[in-house]
Amino acid sequence: MIRLAPAFFGLAALALWEGLVRALAVPAYLVPGPLAILAAFLDDPGGLLAALAATLTVTFAALIAATLLGVALALAVAATPLLRAAIQPWAVALQVTPIVAIAPLIIVWVGDPFAALVVCATIIAFFPVFSATTAGLAAVAPEYLDLFRLNGAKTWQTLRLLRLPSALPYFLAGLRISGGLALVGAVVAEFVAGSGGFATGLAYRLIEAGYRLQIPRMFACLVLLGAAGLAINASLGALERWFLARR
Amino acid sequence: MLSLEDVGRRFASGTEALRGVSLAIAAGDFIALLGPSGCGKSTLLRLLAGLDRPDHGRVSWRGAPPASGEIGFVFQDPTLLPWASAAENVYLPLRLRGVALTEARPRIAEALAKVGLAGFETARPAQLSGGMRMRVSIARALLTRPKLLLMDEPFAALDEFTRHKLQADLLAWWRDAGCTIVFVTHSIYEAAFLARRVILMSARPGRIAGEIAADLPAGPARRLDPAYAALVATLTRRLEESHRQGAPA
């Protein structure tokens, strides 16, 4: 019953929404009902799903890049206090700079539109993986480090057998946040790039529909983006549970 | 086996943990370092382990200094890797030395059997009780057959029954292994039950406030021996005296 509760609640909310839109005769260009949104999707399912696939391609490319970059920098920061002092402030600076402000520059600098979108989304997605992994690598209790030292452990052994496994739950929690942010980053980058960008992503379709006042189509794009975000979060959550159960 | 001469240690924070500590440790002895919390007992143990260096004086070994693995260390926390099984945790010191698992397996099984954990090879630390986790930790420390076993309040977090059982077992393991044990505790009863020599330490900066030889009969019955009660009384009185004087007794 508890498991089905979200579905029931969602269906009830949709029914209420549809009922109110019809009872109050709200025009579809202001607030379309769920059935109108479904109709807009069924009007061009191929086009919208292709656009979703394009956005998800950027999202996953960015998530992979952010994970590699985040983990590599976290390892560098954990290696020596000097690198930590050198890298950490810049990582934070990159995190707090609004991506909307840097995206136009990146799109100009990085010639290839796909690569430009991936770079923007990576900048947004990289920080949670980086900071969580850094925290995880540093969270090893000193007695464990003493134990490894007393047994003559080499640096790579301490990293492989102690620091990395200790950091795994932190990394996976960071990855889950980064997954959602990679999608946000892909959408923001597509918005900023507009027709000058990759021009096939769902965010671009959303803007396009807005210009044409195709409000139900806009909603259809939004629903697809929301569903994609939920799916990413759920898959990374499942990955997290799977890894932690098997490590 | 080794000796400390006029050893002092002051931390970067300015805290003086140890001052003028001189102590000789004979091979095969069981020494308890007894004193209040914060008296530098653990610092002294870290100096013996080579995990820290004195600012003053020296720690010198008679003969060759110990190679890696010749010093075992048991912490207050069992320090087991939570993602590894009991056997994998015991295997760790040999794994770090590059010994293959197939080669180490008989020794791991023997070490776990010795501490009474045969059949628990695949159990994760979370599936074991506090006392069993400490047994795994001790099995890991004994695996490399250390010459010197340093123990930092290993039983402090255990309940009374488990502690009594582990104390009796530790004496048996010590006799069996023939190693030297330096055991840090703030329990007078524990020091009196376990050690052959009890070194009393004064509050910070830690100094040696006295030494009492304990020569009680072997076996768990020593807890009921009148000599044990007398030793507890002596240790209590000496500790109180050193507290009152705030200086070496």
Topology:
The complex is a heterodimer of chains A (247) and B (249).
Chain A (H helix, E strand, L loop, with lengths): L4 H19 L10 H10 L1 H35 L1 H16 L2 H11 L3 H26 L3 H9 L4 H39 L8 H10 L3 H32 L1
Helix pairs in contact in A: 2-10, 3-4, 3-6, 3-8, 3-9, 3-10, 4-6, 5-6, 5-8, 6-8, 8-9, 8-10, 9-10
Chain B lengths: L1 E9 L5 E10 L4 E5 L6 H9 L6 E6 L9 E4 L11 H11 L4 H14 L15 H14 L4 E5 L7 H18 L2 E6 L2 H7 L2 E5 L6 E6 L12 H20 L4
Parallel strand pairs in B: 3-7, 3-8, 5-6, 6-7
Antiparallel strand pairs in B: 1-2, 1-4, 8-9
Helix pairs in contact in B: 2-3, 2-4, 3-4, 6-7
How would you sum up this structure, described in words?
The complex is a heterodimer of chains A (247) and B (249). With 247 residues, chain A is mainly alpha-helical. In chain A, 84% of the residues lie in helices and 0% in strands. Chain A is built from ten helices and no strands. The two termini of chain A are 32 Å apart. The model of chain A has no long low-confidence stretch (mean pLDDT 90). By secondary structure, chain B is α/β, with parallel strands linked by helices. Chain B folds into two domains: 164 residues, Rossmann fold (3-Layer(aba) Sandwich); 67 residues. In chain B, the strands form two sheets. A six-stranded mixed beta sheet of chain B has the order 5-6-7-3-8-9, with helices on both faces. A three-stranded antiparallel beta sheet of chain B has the order 2-1-4, covered by helices on one side. In chain B, strand 8 and strand 9 form a beta hairpin. The radius of gyration of chain B is 18 Å and the shape is globular. The two termini of chain B are 26 Å apart. The model of chain B has no long low-confidence stretch (mean pLDDT 87). Chains A and B meet through helix 7 and helix 8 of A and helix 2 of B.
